Amino acid sequence: MYERYRVKPETKIDLNEWDPADRSAFDGEKAAGRDATKKLNKQLESLQELLYAEGKHKVLIVLQAMDTGGKDGTIRHVFDGVNPQGVKVASFKRPTPEELAHDYLWRIHKHTPGRGEIAIFNRSHYEDVLVVRVHNLVAEAIWQRRYDQINAFEQMLAEEGTTILKFYLHIDKAEQKERLQARLDEPDKNWKFAKGDLAERAIWPQYQEAYEVVLSRTSTPHAPWFIIPANRKWYRNLVISQILVDTLEGLDMRYPQAEEGLDEIVIE
Ligand code: ATP
Ligand code: MG
Fold first, then answer.
1. Angle at Cα 122 formed by Cα 172 and Cα 232, nearest 5°?
2. Residues with pLDDT less than 70, the chain
3. DSSP code of 216?
4. 3-state SS, residue 220
5. Backbone angles phi, psi at 136, to 5 degrees
6. Is 98 within 8 Å of 84 (Cβ atoms)?
7. Ranges of H-type helices in the chain
8. Mind listing the domains of the chain with CATH numbers?
9. How far apart are the first and last CA of the chain?
10. What gap in Å lies between CA 82 and CA 86, rounded to an integer?
C-alpha cells in the first residue's frame, strides 16, 4: 500500500520530485487517518508483545529528518501504548570526546537491538555523512568511504537477524518555518528552539543534497529507506505505522511453545 515511498536500491533520488505534502496513498481526511492510525497502533502493540515473547527477531528503526521534521512526534505517536520494556530509543547527539576517540560506529553498535527488541534511532550513524559532510567535520576522503562502510555494517546486522527500516521524514522549508515559529510563539515550546537550528536552515540546499546522496546510495534490500511525506503529521504517523505493522506481520512470529500439561494444572 505504501510501497511507493520505498527507495529502490541504486535509484538516484531527486527530493524535488517527492512531495512532502503528499497523501495520495490514503483515501480519506485527517480524522479518518487518525482513526486508522489508532487501529494500527493496537496491532503494533500486539505484534510487539509477540516479538518480545518469541525473543527471536531484532528490529531496528532509523529516523532521520531536518530540524522540526518530527522525529520526536513520530516516536510518541507511532509507539503510543507499546510496552516500553521491549522498545528502546537511542538519541544520537553531538559525539562526546570519548565517542570521537573511537570509530563513528562504535557508539551506534551498542544501541542496536537484541533478540525480541525494537530499537528506535532518533538520528543515527547517518549524521556521519550528513552534518559531518555538510560542515566538513572530517576530510572528504573519510566521509566518502562511509557510505560503503554503512552498507556493510547494516548488511552484517541483517545477516545476524536484524530487520532494518529507515525513515526519512520529508518536510519542506516553508513547513520548517512554521514549526520553528511555533517554537518561538508558544512558551511551552520555547525550550525546543535552538538558535543554532537557524544556521542549519540557512544551508537547507546542502542538507537536501546530502540526504539525496544518502537515499541514493544506502537504500538496500536488507535496509531500505522510505521517504515519508511529513508535512502532515497525521499522514506521516499513518504511513510509518502501516509500514511497521506490515513488516512485523511479515516476520511470521509465533508465541513460544507452552510447557506440556498446563491444562491439567489446578492452582490451589
Ligand atoms: P530536536 O529535533 O528536538 O531539536 P535534535 O535531535 O535536533 O532534537 P539536538 O540536541 O537539538 O537534538 O541536536 C543534536 C545535534 O547533534 C544535531 O544538530 C545533530 O546534527 C548533531 N549530531 C548528531 N550526530 C552527530 C555527529 N555524528 N557529528 C556531529 N554532530 C552530530
Ligand atoms: Mg535540534
1. 35
2. none
3. H
4. strand
5. 50, 50
6. no
7. 30-54, 71-78, 97-100, 106-109, 131-134, 140-159, 173-185, 196-202, 204-217, 233-249
8. 2-249 (3.40.50.300)
9. 51
10. 8
Residues counted in the chain: 268
Angle at CA of residue 19, ends 76 and 248, nearest 5° = 45
- Within 8 A by CB and 6+ apart from 203, the residues are 134
Query: Is 92 touching ligand 1 by the criterion CB < 6 Å?
Result: yes
pTM of the model: 0.96
Please tell me the residue having the least CA distance from ligand 1 atom 7.
67
3-state helix, strand, coil in the chain (%, to 5): 50, 15, 35
Q: Which helix (H) or strand (E) holds 19?
A: none
Pocket test for ligand 1, best of 68, 94, 121 (most atoms within 8 A of CB): 94
The one-letter code for the residue type at 140 is E
For 188-199, how does the pLDDT look when each residue is reduced to its tens digit (9 = 90+)? 999 999 999 999
Look-up of cell digits 497502533: 41
Give the separation between CA 227 and CA 38, rounded to whole angstroms.
22
Q: What is the pLDDT of residue 81?
A: 85
The three grid cell numbers given for residue 41, joined into one nine-digit string: 497502533
* 88 phi/psi in degrees, rounded to 5: -120, 130
